[in-house]
Amino acid sequence: LYRVQRKDIPKAGVVLADAFQRDPIWKLVFKDEARLEQRGILFESPIKYCLKYGEVYAPSEHLEGVALWVPGDFADLTIWRLIRSGAIISGMRAMKACTKLARKQGRIFGPLQADRKAHMKGRTYTYLMVLGVASAFQGQGLGGRLLRALIEKSEQARIPIYVETETERNVEMYERFGFRVLEQITLPIINLPQWELVREPQT
Question: Residue 129 in contact with residue 70, Cβ under 8 Å?
Fold first, then answer.
């Protein structure tokens, strides 16, 4: 795999924006007329955050897809951490590409944060923040390569992986890799489902 560097951030952001352009939640977040480059700026925030506090990988230097993860202790994107990582600047720049719903993200995603803390209380774990493959490369197993790399690290460290996802198709994919659903909830305001999953070390 290729470890994403700071010089790759703009391209990695566009890759994730492309990967999630049909995602039900992100379709609500972005304005219809927003260009892919504008949407990519918003994804730069979690990339910068994970470069500071976790790890960011792609299948190759061509950045066909991107995976971001952090230790569970850094799963919460606090204002101070966003400032320290430089992620808050990207988020502010991207707001013009977003709908008014984006300004309510604290209320929308707050239940996920609360559930994650409850499910993983007192445990050391890795939080898979984002995993996406550009539309032109989907269906080629690249997402699986990225996920297997994280699973290998998880097995070596003997710690679980926690992730949330918003489609049944993704749930099925994660289950094939040994994840199990802890809970399914409906996000407030946007009324869309979200699944909370964990993968325990198995070897």
Answer: yes
Rounded to whole angstroms, how far apart are CA atoms 193 and 42? 22
Residue 125 main-chain phi, psi, to 5 deg:
-155, 170
Q: What is the pTM of this model?
A: 0.93
Q: State the chain's mean pLDDT as an integer.
A: 92
Q: How far is 190 from 111, CA to CA, in rounded Å?
A: 13
- In order, the DSSP letters of 65-105 are EEEEEEEGGG-S--HHHHHHHTHHHHHHHHGGGB-GGGGGH
What confidence tier does 103 reach under pLDDT thresholds 50, 70, 90?
Answer: low
Q: Are 16 and 130 in contact (CB under 8 A)?
A: yes
Report residue 32: phi and psi, to 5°.
Answer: -60, -35
Which residue shows structure tokens 């070897």? 203
Q: What digits encode the pLDDT tens for the residues 120-146?
A: 999 999 999 999 999 999 999 999 999
Measure the CA–CA gap between 85 and 30, rounded to whole angstroms: 23
User: Does 150 or 96 have the greater pLDDT score?
Assistant: 150
Among residues 72, 2, 3, 16, which one has the least CA distance to residue 45?
16
